[in-house]
Input
Amino acid sequence: MLDSIDQKLLATLTEDGRSSLKSLAAICGLSPPSVAERLRRLEERGILSGYTIDIEPRALGYQFQAIVRVRPLPGRLHDVEREIQSIGEITECDKVTGEDCFYARLQVRSLEQLDALLDRLARQAETHTSIVKTSPVKRRLPPLG
Output
């Protein structure tokens, strides 16, 4: 379980992964060495596995985001999984239960690029695509308490 200090550390780092030990210490009422030790323990426990940055795809020219449900043709599951892994524009993908096997999130510069990527999958799978309009909930932590 996480105590209230660990919860504060994780919540703060989720908002700003570049928070300094000094600022984390001030927020939690601890010394910087104590914060460093707590972070080390969270890492050892596998709770904290990395510090990341948040990049805005639109600033890099990716104008569209799509979610694609992928249902491999019979006997093509592993081929489809390898193809998904090879497409750099797929920024996230989950293997799921149900009628579809994969839910993939793509970032593309144009609808023509989206069509070309879907064509790569169409040889081995059936796809259903939705264009993302907005994301009212960004990736976030589940409740920590």
